[in-house]
Amino acid sequence: MKKTFMGLRLKRLREERQMTQVALAQALGLSPSYLNQLEQNQRPLTVSVLLRLNAAFGIDVQLFSEDDEARLISELRDLFADAPNDDAPGLAEIRELASRLPGVARLLLQQGRQLHEAREREAIWASRLGLDRQAETLPRPMPFEAVRDFFYRRHNHVAELDELAERCFADWQLRPGNTGNGLARRLSERHGILVSTDDNDRGLLRDFDEKARRLRLSASLSSGQQAFHMATQLARLEAGELIDELAAGAAPDDEETRRLARIGLASYFAGALLLPYGRYLESAEACRYDIEQLGRSFGVGYETACHRLSTLQRPQAPGVPFFFIRVDRAGNISKRQSATDFHFSRIGGTCPLWNVYEAFAQPGKILTQLAAMPDGRNYLWIARSVHRGHGGYGAPGKTFSIGLGCDLRHAERLVYSKGLDLKAVDGFTPIGTACKVCPRAHCPQRAFPPSGNALVVDENRRHFSPYA
């Protein structure tokens, strides 16, 4: 464990419980002088002390995690990206704020988001009243972003749904890799719903006729995809109340956001039902997170196997914390989930140096990449393209690239680190989150200057250029 100084958080924890230093020291079995040194950041917080905090108070050790601090740093950099150069805090100041005053940092982020939404609403109303025609081009606040934030705050892990799904898997006597028959039986016996497989006249992958109590699945779906759609239907029937409660917490005052949250939570439950937490984590650790092997063992596709890996963050039994992303050829991100400190910029644009884009040029092949971020953190990335074609000859299909990444310190647990030099940092690919906030001024793939720097000096050509 790296030396981690969390004195202010420890002091805040003690004050919240209205305890003196002596009382807390006694509860943890430490000397008062040693506890005082911890609070003054004269001593690093050790694993032993963390375990004592957990045992004495049931404290989630994530409260003292460096990953949580890194997430704050990334979000704060986005918040201050559009500030004028003279006013914008530097990286050192942002690190200090996230480390020593995390509560203040989170409040700033919350107020920043509220200010951004208020400005957008103001512009929209001004447009409707004819006060500013240019405001018509401003985007409305996006409900899907609120849903992403909901999962991000939970580190992409919804414990309530995971635990329910595991109980259902056992009670319904489902079998890993062959859940379809058991799910169809549950739908029929418990809910009176008949499952049929055919090509419906509307070209839908799933069509539920509530009046006829009939669930029709497209014949073009694989057995694993059919099982997922059945599990999604069961999510609404068996976990509907829990999903509604969780969705209400995501957005108590916005129905569209709650609707999207319910869809996301139903899909989460379906994945957790097909790939129950304990069994899937055990298999993943046994095969060193070999994605294709996991997919074969559990009867699911590559994308589903990857997505489930990004959710394995049960505090008592965590897996490797992954970041999951799905992009198309145009660079549009249709899925992104993070159980890590890795944070995508809200400002837009992704780094073309990521291997998720190279995967399109080598269909079906798993590519690995050791990547270095501007903040000094390093990652192992795995990428592979996937294709979906549900029509006949000549019908357009869908091609995506799936990326799965983890912090370098976890890389040795993955089979994909085999043959890679994890210590040759100079050879890592330098990537960023978005050009507007990336400080790599001389990157050959830069699309436009960073925010707040409209012009940069090109020392080689001795003139001002909009691009480095």
Describe the structure.
The structure is a single chain. The protein folds into 4 domains: about 5-50, Orthogonal Bundle (434 Repressor (Amino-terminal Domain)); about 65-135, no CATH class; about 160-315, no CATH class; about 325-430, 2-Layer Sandwich (Beta-Lactamase), CATH 3.30.450. Helix 2 crosses helix 3 (about 30-40) and helix 5 packs across helix 6 (about 90-100). Strand 6 and strand 7 form a beta hairpin. It is an alpha+beta fold and about 475 residues long. It is built from 17 helices and 13 strands. The protein has a 6-stranded mixed sheet. It is globular, with a radius of gyration of 25 Å. The protein has helices at about 5-15, 20-30, 30-40, 45-55, 65-80, 90-100, 100-130, 145-155, 160-170, 180-190, 225-240, 240-250, 255-275, 275-285, 290-300, 300-310, 355-360; strands spanning about 195-200, 205-210, 215-220, 315, 315-320, 325, 335-340, 365-370, 380-390, 400-405, 430, 455-460, 465. Residues about 130-140 and about 450-468 have low confidence and may be disordered.
Question: Could you name the key traits of this structure?
Answer:
4 domains, 434 Repressor (Amino-terminal Domain), 17 helices, 6-stranded mixed beta sheet, alpha+beta, 13 strands, 3-stranded mixed beta sheet
Question: Summed up, what is this model?
Answer:
With 468 residues, the protein is α+β, with helices and mostly antiparallel strands. It is 43% helix and 14% strand. The strands form 4 sheets. The protein has a 6-stranded mixed beta sheet.
